[in-house]
Design a protein that fits this description.
Chain C: Keywords: Hydrogen ion transport, Ion transport, Transport. The complex is a heterotrimer of chains A (about 250), B (about 190) and C (about 400). Chain A has about 250 residues and is mainly alpha-helical. Helices cover about 70% and strands about 10% of the residues of chain A. Chain A has a single domain, classed as Orthogonal Bundle (Helix Hairpins), CATH 1.10.287.3240. In chain A, strands 1-2 form a two-stranded antiparallel ribbon. The two termini of chain A are about 25 Å apart. The mean pLDDT of chain A is about 80. With about 190 residues, chain B is an all-alpha fold. Chain B has a single domain, classed as lithium bound rotor ring of v- atpase (Four Helix Bundle (Hemerythrin (Met), subunit A)), CATH 1.20.120. Chain B has seven helices and no strands. In chain B, helix 5 packs antiparallel against helix 6 (about 110-150) and helix 5 packs parallel to helix 7. Chain B is elongated. Chain C is mostly helical. The chains are: A mainly alpha (about 250), B mainly alpha (about 190), C mainly alpha (about 400). The interface of A and C includes residues 81, 116, 118 and 125 of A.
Chain lengths: ~250, ~190, ~400
């Protein structure tokens, strides 16, 4: 604080800084609010998805049990099938109040479905059911992953924003205000110092004037005594008495 | 063969298969009766024990409690053998030698009684033997089922045992008829008066 | 394929026991090892798998699960199958011809599954020991065959060799050869391509079809009671397969008009009540409605189909299982035939399915569904009077 020279220019600079800080604070506060709203939305969506997923996943796994009851153990057959992915997950970007959120989307690769005739001699319909259930579950899972990642990113962003808001509010702005106060105090002090000095100079000057006036009167009396030399000397010395270099400039 | 039999006109020549019946000694018939009666009965008993035994042993693997109880099925089968033995003893006792054994039978020999006794005992033996085969097999089958059923449910044992008793009764019919058949058979031991 | 004639006759009521009385009584004795209504009742009341384990220690499965501290459905299934295999092997060692061949026929079904697994797994480059682990123990090949499988190199040539030198010599080799021959005649591709291109499930269905036909002809040659009872079981089995194949093909390439008469028709067994009139009609079927119309002509299947069509609580698989259990139980009603051995194996399989189902339901907290299994030799079965004895 002390390293800021208390000058009028600095005062102007810091006044500008304060204005900027307050503007930034206001904007960040708005952003934080917007993020908070989004954050809550996501939290809600995650809670909903998760709660519905517990049911769905247990359903899906139970349908598998049903299918194994009907068709025997078909896991190995699925495992031995061709291993080309039929579904892939793509990543996109969503922008919320300047925060980039990842969005995962499922898309079909268009690979031919294999193992279509699984459970041909029994349980085929059940296996079909398992396939549907797990496809749904996969979609939910992707949605949840997308939400969860967004949630975390948002959380991070929200924390950063809040930190910034708080820093502006509690550190930066008070600091600027402190500096401004310091500058104002210092400037006032300088002003008062100048005033006193001026007063002192004025007092001295008055004494000098009085002395000179007395001297002049003495000389005038002398001239009156001696004749007409008085006006001449009066013309010659009127500016000489106030030499410009005698006084310091007063700078305000 | 036909040509030979047609050319043979002697009384000592065989006139055909029918002569087997008349040309065999009634003593032979009687003893064959004993042999068939006993032998077939024992075949029946053995068959039944085999049928019962194999099932009994198998069923007892998982239900060891049945093994002594179901021995009764084996005993029922054994009973058919005993019928055969009884009949054999009865028949054997009826076979009597002539008083004066000689190369030829005496004059005035009771040929009717002689053949009657031989054929009667032969038939009695066959009656007993054949009924006992049937009885033995059916007791065996029932006994096999009895062992298997008992292994599953002990309350079935008595019920199937009754079936077995009926199957066993078949042999008794045989032996009763056999005894009656052989009752009138007495081998003449000497020439008639 | 010509089914080999049995080396000896099975015998009639008076002679059956001479050779087969002991194993038959054994398998009938084993009938008492089935879980009863009481056991199922206790099992369905369990809250945890530990309770299940505790309840099972009282039953015939006690020894099988004694070594496990904690059971999972998978462990339970494995232990139960091991137990079944032990019992089956015991029966097999006690049997003489033609029962021995009959029992071997039962294992061929599992062998087919194993061959498929090994070949397909080997083609996709899996570790052969890992594959052997997954095989059904009832369908294991001879020790020497098993040992020789991993010696083949991991290449196309190696698999061709594997097929030509090893698998052909297994009991299911002839079925395989028939399938490959038929396929290559049909599509003009060689063996390796058929294995790669045709779906595993379709190959399996074809082999099962040959197996059913072969088994059926075998029991017909045995004759007597066996031919009647076992023949009926296999006819029904063949019909079930035909109906299931048709039903499950809807929505798959197999239902395309061109495939229907070529590929799908080839999967229908050439035995059974539906053959030949029914299977010919099934060839033309393209959706459930048409299938229902065809099955309406066969009273025994019309009832089953109506259960499925009404969309009730039971799926068609459940109805088929129920019907299977009923007819397999009936095989135990008659003595002096081989059907009981097949029935025993199949009913045990059903029991294992039930156990896995119950334990899965407990594990997954699906108490509402826990009673949806088909108990074996239950006094509450719909086809029995509710009266106890």
């Amino acid at each position: 604080m002390a390293d800021v020279p208390p000058t009028r220019m600095n005062q102007q600079i810091f006044k500008g800084k304060k204005k900027a800080a307050e503007g930034g604070h206001k904007l960040l506060k708005k952003k934080a609010d917007a993020l908070k709203v989004k954050f809550r939305d996501y939290a809600k969506a995650i809670a909903e998805t998760k709660s519905s997923m517990t049911g769905d996943s247990s359903n899906a796994f139970f349908s598998m049990t049903q299918a194994e009851y009907a068709a025997g153990n078909f896991k190995q057959k699925v495992a031995e099938g061709s291993m080309t992915a039929r579904v892939r997950v793509g990543a996109g970007v969503d922008n919320v109040a300047g925060v980039k959120l990842p969005v995962f989307t499922k898309y079909d690769t268009g690979a031919a479905a294999d193992n279509q005739s699984l459970g041909l001699v029994g349980g085929g319909k059940k296996i079909q059911n398992v396939r549907e259930k797990f496809t749904d579950l996969l979609e939910m899972l992707i949605k949840l992953a997308s939400l969860q990642t967004s949630f975390q990113t948002l959380d991070e962003a929200l924390k950063v924003t809040n930190r910034r808001v708080n820093a502006l509010e509690n550190v930066t702005i008070p600091k600027i205000e402190g500096i401004l106060g310091y500058i104002a105090r210092e400037l006032d002090e300088l002003e008062r110092e100048d005033f006193t000095r001026l007063k002192l100079v004025q007092g001295k000057k008055e004494i000098e004037i009085k002395r000179e006036a007395a001297q002049k009167a003495k000389e005038a009396a002398k001239i009156m005594v001696s004749g007409q030399a008085r006006p001449k000397s009066n013309d010659a010395d009127i500016t000489a008495a106030f030499d410009a270099n005698d006084d310091e400039d007063v700078v305000f | 063969m036909g040509d030979n039999s047609a050319t043979c006109s002697s009384v000592y020549c065989n006139q055909g298969w029918a002569e087997v019946l008349t040309h065999m000694s009634p003593y032979g018939y009687a003893n064959f009766g004993v042999a068939f009666g006993l032998g077939l009965s024992i075949v029946g008993a053995a068959w039944g024990i085999w049928l019962t035994g194999s099932s009994l042993v198998g069923a007892a693997v998982k239900a060891p409690r049945i093994r002594s109880k179901n021995l009764i099925s084996v005993i029922f089968c054994e009973a058919t053998a005993i019928y055969g033995v009884i009949m054999a003893i009865i028949l054997t006792n009826k076979i009597k030698e002539p008083e004066n054994p000689d190369y030829y039978l005496e004059e005035g020999w009771d040929y009717n009684g002689y053949y009657y006794a031989g054929y009667g005992m032969f038939s009695a033996g066959l009656s007993v033997g054949l009924t006992n085969i049937a009885s033995g097999v059916s007791v065996g089958i029932a006994g096999s089922s009895c062992a298997i059923a008992d292994a599953q449910d002990a309350s079935l044992f008595v019920k199937i045992l009754i079936v077995e008793i009926f199957a066993s009764a078949l042999g008794i019919f045989g032996i009763i008829v056999g005894i009656i058949q052989s009752n009138a058979c007495t081998f003449p031991i000497a020439a008639l008066g | 394929m010509s089914t080999p004639a049995p080396q000896a006759a099975a015998g009639n009521i008076a002679t059956f026991n001479i050779l087969h009385g002991f194993p038959e009584a054994l398998v009938r004795g084993m009938r008492s090892s089935f879980l009863g209504d009481q056991d199922y009742h206790h099992l369905t009341q369990c809250e945890t798998l530990d309770d299940v384990r505790l309840n099972l220690t009282e039953t015939d499965y006690g020894d099988a699960i004694a070594d496990f501290n904690a059971i999972t459905p998978a462990v339970l299934q494995k232990a139960a199958i091991e137990k079944l295999v032990t019992e089956f092997k015991y029966l097999r060692t006690q049997s003489v011809e033609p029962l021995a061949t009959f029992l071997d026929f039962i294992t061929y079904e599992y062998m087919i599954e194993n061959v498929m697994l090994l070949l397909k797994g080997a083609l996709s480059g899996r570790d052969i020991n890992e594959l052997i682990e997954q095989c059904h123990p009832l369908g294991m090949f001879k020790e020497s065959t098993m040992r020789s499988i991993p010696t083949f190199e991991n290449s196309a040539r190696g698999y061709a060799d594997l097929y030509q030198t090893v698998l052909v010599d297994t009991p299911v080799g002839p079925y395989f050869a028939m399938f490959l021959q038929e396929s290559s005649e049909h599509q003009g591709t060689d063996a390796r391509h058929v294995l790669e291109e045709v779906e595993i499930e379709i190959i399996k269905s074809s082999l099962i079809k040959y197996w059913i036909e072969d088994f059926y002809h075998f029991v017909q040659k045995i004759g007597g009671e066996t031919a009647d009872i076992m023949g009926e079981l296999l006819r029904v089995r063949a019909d079930t397969n035909a109906i299931n194949i048709t039903l499950n093909s809807f929505g798959t390439p197999l239902n395309e008009p061109a495939m229907r008469s070529s590929d799908r028709k080839r999967l229908y067994p050439a035995v059974g009540h539906l053959y030949p009139a029914g299977t010919t009609e099934l060839t033309e079927v393209s959706n459930e409605e048409e299938l229902g119309r065809v099955l309406d002509l066969f009273p025994q299947y019309a009832a089953i189909w109506s259960m499925h069509a009404s969309g009730g609580d039971k799926s068609i698989d459940d109805v088929f299982y129920e019907r299977d259990v009923q007819s397999l139980e009936l095989a135990f009603e008659s003595q002096f035939h081989f059907g009981v051995f097949y029935a025993y194996a199949k009913l045990k399989e059903q029991e294992i399915r039930n156990l896995v189902w119950i334990s899965e339901c407990i594990l997954q907290q699906q108490k509402d569904e826990i009673n949806k299994f088909v108990p074996v030799f239950s006094f509450h079965s719909p086809w029995r009077g509710s009266k106890r004895r």
